[in-house]
Amino acid sequence: MELGNSKLSASSDSYVGADYHPDGFAPAQGHASIQNETAESIQTWLTAKLAEYLEVKAADIDIHKPFASYGLESVDAVGLSGDIEEWLGRELAPTLLYDYPSIANLTRYLVAGCDAHGATKEGERRQEVTAEPIAIIGMSCHFPGGANTPEAFWQLLKSGKDAISEIPAERWEIDSFYDPDPDAPGKMYTRHGGFLENISGFDAQFFGISPREAVRMDPQQRLLVEAAWEALEDAGQAADKLAGSQTGVFIGMMNNSEYAQLQVKTGDSTYVDDPYFGIGSSSSIASGRLSYLFDLRGPTMTVDTACSSSLVSVHLACQSLRNKECKLALAGGVNAITLPESVVNACKMRMLAADGRCKTFDAVADGFVLGEGCGMVVLKRLSEAIADGDSILAIIRGTAVNQDGRSNGITAPNKLAQQAVIRKALARTLVTWQGRLA
User: Fold this and answer.
1) pTM
2) Who has greater pLDDT, 269 or 390?
3) What is the C-alpha to C-alpha distance for residues 330 and 118, in angstroms, rounded to an integer?
4) Which of 71, 154, 298, 401 would disulfide-bridge 8, Cβ 3.0–4.6 Å?
5) Are the beta carbons of 291 and 250 closer than 8 angstroms?
6) Sign of the torsion angle spanned by Cα atoms 236, 318, 248, 250
7) Do residues 200 and 322 both lie within one domain?
């Protein structure tokens, strides 16, 4: 689930699109045209039907407000979609009210019979200008299950190893926070997540960081420093030779206050007088520290677009390379789970799966599973990577970014916006959504 922030799709050489109807529904056979109904009649019917579901007066319905703002549950939304389908005599997607989350939007769509959000069509795709591909010449990672190198991560995937575990005792005492009742105050209804081993371990001396400063550094900053060094090493780029170079740093990070709150909770008030406290908790320092340690002079930024932060960082890095703002780029993301209250709050939003298992595209799906880790890639324009004899691990041909806009609730996804961003990314390549070369 994306939390109302930018979504991004990156298309690579091996991208293969699924065979789906681009407008999200298949016309039913043997039924009258939807255009037999006017916009006014459809809007009136929808308003009356919603009022009936909610047991309110039709005059109290605002056609521009999202259905979710009226407290319409998902089962009711599917039921209402079925009623619309029966009334109009054509097959419609059960997710209709999520795709067009207000009466006004839904009316426009039903009358036009096309994508009211203006998703890019195949004909428009031809007008896009393809840009130079970007080469991935190095990578590193620290993931749950002991996957601290790309090779170890690949073996974990091949073996089917389960990297989800019960919350480690060194994070917090799970029995003090667990309650299967999702409404229990101050409690979490899940005991599981994806956790790194020895998250407190860090060779501060190797990076010229004092022990005092290292203690105040958010574990996410420590992970980024290690992953950046390892990725550059994997790319055959000596850090000392990059000093003063136009190398950019693009980091995705959405949780940047947990460790600071954890320090405050300990009751040790010395943090107030410690300048390293603020530096160690700053999101801008998360990326800026890498440029500082390695003396990199290219664009440097930390990006927070919730779940898409890392992908948006890669998108921005590719754009920067194509615009020749930098010659080399570090792009990646990081997450650490250090505060139990954050998990409790996610449970109160009913976001997490109680059994610690994602059940994507399944009828019994009931949430996602929190995880932590860090991943980093080293990017370079493909032509220069070839000229320099770099090892090319993969190629990024096109990326795109957009936003869900006013979906059916601020944490609800927008299928049409996600289709549009995939089309946009593919339009910047020579690949169609069917997976064929144009």
Assistant:
1) 0.81
2) 390
3) 34
4) 401
5) no
6) negative
7) yes
